[in-house]
Structures are given as structure tokens and as C-alpha cells.
Amino acid sequence: TLAEAVHARIRPAGTAERILRAWAEGTPPRGPVHLEDPAAMPPVRVRAGAIVIRDGAMLLIHFEEDGAPFYEIPGGGVEAGETPEAAVVRELDEETGL
Fold first, then answer.
1. 51 is in which domain, residue-wise?
2. CATH code, domain carrying 57
């Protein structure tokens, strides 16, 4: 699936392989080196969203966070085994009833 392909290709920026390669090439990184175990990193979640325009108006979802108003396009996470297209349809139904 698309989600599995994306997850398989994403690696954290400070991987041990990158640091070790730099040292092997004679260019060790300057300053402190902070390595993260990729297995300990939170998983990347693929999301899908819809841009819905009708009669010149765009559909946005309104929400508040810490008292501040925000707007975003409808959408959400792609579930395991779900296509991004199916996720958009599901999220539109869940968030708007469309």
C-alpha cells in the first residue's frame, strides 16, 4: 500500500548510518552527536485530505486549540489497508456527513 511504501522509505535525519558514513569519509560531524533509535521513533502516519470548493467557497473544518481558532481542510489518517481515496471519503463522511 502507499502507507507501507512511505513508512519503509522514511528514516530519521540523525541515523547512525549517516553519522558513521561521515566519519568513514573523514568528515565527522561538529558538535554533539545525538542518535535516535529508529525503532523508538513514533510511526509516521499517512494522512489524506480533501479540498472541496462549491460556488467559489471552500469547505473548512473549524476547531479551537488553547482558545485560538483554527481552520483546516477535512481529512485524517489513512488506516491500514485503506487507500488514500477511501480515507478521504470516510473522513468527509465522519467530519461533515457529505
1. 45-98
2. 3.90.79.10
Residue 27 and residue 7 share a domain = yes
> Are 78 and 87 spatial neighbours (Cβ–Cβ below 8 Å)?
yes
Q: Would you write out the chain's pLDDT as a tens digit for each of its 98 residues?
A: 555 555 455 554 555 667 677 778 888 767 676 667 767 778 888 999 999 999 989 999 999 999 999 999 999 999 999 999 999 999 999 998 87
In angstroms, the CA 73 to CA 79 distance is 18
Same domain, 52 and 91: yes
Alpha carbon 28 to chain centroid, angstroms: 31
Looking at the structure, do residues 69 and 24 belong to the same domain, yes or no?
A: no
Q: How many structural domains is the chain composed of?
A: 2
Write out 52-96 in H/E/C secondary structure: CEECCEECCEEEEECCEEEEECCEEECCCCCCHHHHHHHHHHHHH
